[in-house]
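Supplementary Methods, section 5.1.

A reviewer requested that the exact input to the structure prediction be made available. We therefore reproduce it here, unchanged from the version used in the analyses.
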Amino acid sequence: ACCPCVVWLRRGGQVTRGDGGGLALFTLCAIGVNVAMFIAFIRVAIWVAMICVYTYPALVTLGAVRIYKEPIDRRRAAALLLGFAGLAMVLGPSVLSTGGKVDPVGVALALTASLFQAVNVLILGRGFGAIPTIVTALSLNAGSAVISLVLALAIGPGVASLSLPGDRPVLFVLCVVRVGSAIPGPADLPGL
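The structure derived from this sequence is encoded token-by-token as follows.
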């Protein structure tokens, strides 16, 4: 993933301070999404975490008002109200049926992942100046992969020795998943 980036830089490609900062912030937020989500999955049911994470479009709308000066018209206000009402309608009865035993830390982590995802969408909405889309996408994936690997190794040697069904080592699977995510990344980025 780093090769096209290096080639582009060697051919005279320039990264401004703002674009470099945006790429760094995006990468850190992408790691934040993953770390917060995986810890949330340990603490609350996956469906609870996923419902919380999918509040990010509403957060993007609110962020766009502040950052891009986009107005909230009646249609957007109604969509925001419906989105948050839907969240309350799904989570409310579930919390009540379990006697309120939904872990607030798990919910907070899932909402934090949503916030990180919203920041990433807002960063992508600004773009990265003269950096070609393919270079941006590959840089973001490479940065996330390196940080993910460092985090996995920092957790301890136990991560490398863990295995999944079929005796597949977890570290190998994590690397394959990260490399696999680099394939759709360049295709998705132009659409954002």
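Strands lie at 163-164, 168-169. These observations are discussed further in the main text.
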